[in-house]
Write a structure and sequence with these properties.
The structure holds two protein chains of two kinds. Helices cover about 20% and strands about 35% of the residues of chain A. By secondary structure, chain A is α+β, with helices and mostly antiparallel strands. In chain B, about 35% of the residues lie in helices and about 25% in strands. Chain B is built from eight helices and twelve strands. The chains are: A alpha+beta, B alpha+beta. Chains A and B meet through strand 12, helix 2, helix 6, strand 15 and strand 16 of A and strand 9, helix 6 and helix 7 of B.
Chain lengths: ~290, ~270
Amino acid sequence: MAKLILSMDGLVLKEIPLTKERTTLGRKPHNDIQIDNLAVSGEHAVIVTILNDSFLEDLGSTNGTVVNGNPVKKHFLQNNDVIELGKYKLKFIGEAAPAAGAGGDKADFEKTMVLRPSTMKAAAQAAAAAGGGAQAAVAARQAAVQAAGQSAAATGIADKDAVKAPAAPAAAPAAAAPAAAPAAAPAAGAAPAPKPGGQPLGAIQLLSGGNAGKELELTKPLTTLGKPGVQVAVLTRRPQGYFITHVEGDKRPEVNGQQIGAAPHALKDHDVIELAGIKMEFFLKT
Amino acid sequence: MDLSQSLEIATCTDPGMVRSHNEDSIAADAANGLVVLADGMGGYNAGEVASGMATTVIVTEMRQILSGAKPYQVDTKTKEEIAPKIVREQVLKANTSIYQAAQTQPQYAGMGTTLVVCLFYDNRMLVAHLGDSRLYMTRDGKFKQVTRDHSLLQEQIDSGIITAEQAKKAAHKNLVTKALGIDPSVEPEIHEYPTKPGDIYLLCSDGLCDMVEDEDIGMTLSALGGNLKLAAEQLVQMANDNGGRDNVSVILVRVLREYPGTKGMMGKVFGWLK
């Protein structure tokens, strides 16, 4: 859903989702977006939204409508366009602002659709053409890999990931060269976003018990600790960092001497966890 | 028979990180051993309408029928158990409701939904599905996919055009070949499997399996199986952490203990004859 963010002097006033086909802007109260300012005409402008496209049209306002500094009569709104009405600014955020790398217009493409028997043949052909059997996909990947290699070479970055790209899933080349390899984008777009990679690796070291001194690296998305049936907690690795959550047992684990709640608890470097009578320290490896 | 003592059910649904609407619908009725998950499609809010209709129609109708009959009852005419028949009929009923709404109301034109329905009875589970929402199960630490998607991609995999590895990167993941409410009539795929105490069944929309690797889903279930609610939330969170590009819904069902059906005289005789 596209939306507008209304602000004045850099202060965000409100967010307005563009739910209607016609959203009117003006000073008079019957407008969908009323801006009570004398610089704004009674019926100033209208935004027509058709599917994912929004068009701004000035309705012959006295002071005109300005988009990104240029006065416009009619304008096809793009993501992050700024509409200026007097001293008010409306920032246009298109449908599904780009989430990660590969661009936002794909979100709609990924929507589940049904293939009717009648259209099935055409779609199968289209898919075959798009996929080109395996050949086109392979060719696209190769292009991506080459592009990734070239861009790495051009910028002089001997990145290990870029070198490894041929073996890695298509997400890696796409991340390495998003602009350089548009041909690879459709192939890479549907793959899950890369795993949390940039964050430091966490580990725990046992401080008491029979295995005191032992260290465990937390490389997996989740690691369970404790004794099943007695007390179990899970350490989850997320893009935001590591979290500890109580799973089972009457007693909840303690972090720095405090029992944690039912919700996941964020772990900080050198936190001391106590679980099923065993103390351990969480720390981040560099 | 009330199955809520034999089945533990946890659900979680989330719009994800990108979409503003949640077009998935889920419903669970532990007493009747029934869980339903639907992932709607169609413009504006039509997807929500279609998936909502599917879950509501199936749950209400099934409840009605199960209040007067047992799924393992044998039909006197066909000499077969009624479970597959009643599930199929309710799916068709939901199909008709959605199809008619789509035909008569322009804002709902073209809406439809995927569907997974599981009915637990007599130490067994019957699953009916349409489209790319899935059923997975874990037993004795082994995690596997039970349903096969009705999707263009799956057909291409089956016919050997592409490999499962290539499928993960395919661009047309979203095309389903069967769905509820698109045509006047539809044939759900129905299978029956025996269950064992300790089994965990996972129903999910493609928002989970597209974003999270099967391996990680399996690991989550084995690690957090002790706390089903937490496992459901963790799965949704993992999908969102990986980008959350679609609505994510999960239903987890754990078999706590056996739930044999008490057969009547007729059933006993037929069971014995088999």
